[in-house]
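User: Can you help me understand a structure? I only have the sequence.
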Amino acid sequence: MKILIVTYTYPPAKSVNGFRPLYFARAMEQYGWKVEVLTRHFTGSESFDEYNRPNHTPYSYTLESGVMVHRVPHHNSWFGYYNWPGMRSLGLWKLIYFTQLLCGRTTQESYSKWIGYYLKHLLKSTPYDAILVESGPTNLVRAVARIASTLRIPYIIDFRDAYYHEMYLKDPSKIGFSKKIKLGLEKYYMRRPITFARYCISLSSTLLNILQVPPGKQKVIVNGYDEVAWSKLKNNPDADIFSIIIAGTLYDREILKIFLEGLQLFLSKGLKKVEVLFIAPGPPSVIERIREALPFDDVKILPTRISYEATLEHMATAQVLAYHGWKGYTGYPSAKIYEYIRSGKKIWILPADGDVIDALLLETQTGKSFTDPGIAAQQLHVWYDEWVIKGEVTNTPNWEIIQRHSRQVQSEKINQIVSAMTQGLK
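Assistant: Let's start by predicting it. Here is the structure, written out as tokens:
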């Protein structure tokens, strides 16, 4: 049985959405299937602003832990207009951007012509038994659907995330007009691929329902954490600083304002031996908001992405892991929350989402979430006082529940899905 995974993002890219297809590939290879991956070249050093820049490294393929990985150049010509002199000042980019939306290119990475080009050649030259395509990029899903349907190759779509978090908003009236157009086009261009897909996977059933995936095709696989990577970390001695760490992307929305207000109230007391560390919090606009809201010497920012292993090492030194929740959104389980629950550290979330993240904290007994910044700041004071007295913040998580959320456990589900899809093909 030979499986092809088509994904825009894949290591050495440091973005978390590249880990999902990596673990799927490993799980299927260990199951005994031959697995190949089609992706684009990444250097592993791309910052947030560099992910869409051209990479002209020629096509190559390498065997990586039993998985054949095909890497192709990346050139996003349809979106290069944004950097042309005069385009932004004249407003012509808006017309071109709207044209691209009508063509189904709804995100920056949505037009990657070389993946489509090599996809066509691979599918026509290699007898694959099934395809798993990662969405993200609308054009990759459409290309797989078009070619695979013609060649009668069964395929699965993995909706690993919603590019527009507005899809999860409980109150649709809060979605702006331009964003409604994008959401409508996203749903429209997914209709045909969903119709011919054998199964559609996502982090939760919420997105699958929003995209109107028939119940019989719906499968849920959450992201999870890497148990192997966590188990390699050494036990840290008692820390001489009360460290609050925020790992990964934050979003420039109202929820960020509430989150930063809670930290500001805590830091304004001028407590000794306190440090707040943001690791790769996002684009310059987010970093600017952090610096404006938290003008304290105790606040440190690592602006660029670091390796997964290095991030875990930082998290292992913390007393508290902080995160803005998704208040007003429904059914959105972020990727980082699983790393947080595995850390064994106290988790502090502001604002509470009143939804899946709050439920996960309660189920795993790993922390607290808050609706009020003042009360949230008071809780940080309680944990700080405990650290001053004991040298640590006591945490007693439910490890039995936590272990169910490892990527290794979750990725085993892909084998069950592919097996069900390909029955009779062996």
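Now, to help you interpret it: The first strand starts at residue 2 and ends at 6. The CA atoms of residues 246 and 278 lie 5 Å apart. Let me know which part you'd like to focus on.
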